[in-house]
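Suppose you are handed a protein chain with no further information: no name, no annotation, nothing but its sequence. What can you learn? This example shows the usual starting point.
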Amino acid sequence: MNIEVYVLIMRVSAAVSAGDSKFPASFIRYFGIAYQLFICYKNIYESGGIMSSGLDVTRNLRIIENLKSELLEGIAALYRHLADPVLEDTRDVAADTLSEMIVISYLLGKRLGVDYSTMDRHISKKIRLGLINENEIEKYFGDLSELARMRSGEVQKR
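A reasonable first move is to predict its three-dimensional structure. Written in structure tokens, the prediction is:
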């Protein structure tokens, strides 16, 4: 794919993400599908794979849609549980739901062409930025410092 097409896709993607209203909803929906196809073909090209049919792309798109749905279902399940007036076993439900969403996020990233080590590097960058910018959670609770120590292996498992 040439650079002009890629730049166009990135510009439209940025406009759609920003909620630019000059794009009709149908265009945004079809653009999203086209963008996912672009990612699928890009991943296949970069991995050196040869497609014998369009089934691989279709399968990848279906999996991406399923992962997005599972991620939203996890968020909804957590919200439902937190809205429950009888908050029993909240820690267990939160730990289970949040860990599932993290795994789904890694899998979704992989389907979108982001490998696991890149995800980990970006997570580490986010933690460092939060520490540098004196994130509110860090300021009052020290959670980012604890997370950074845990990820570096300094904190023992409980």
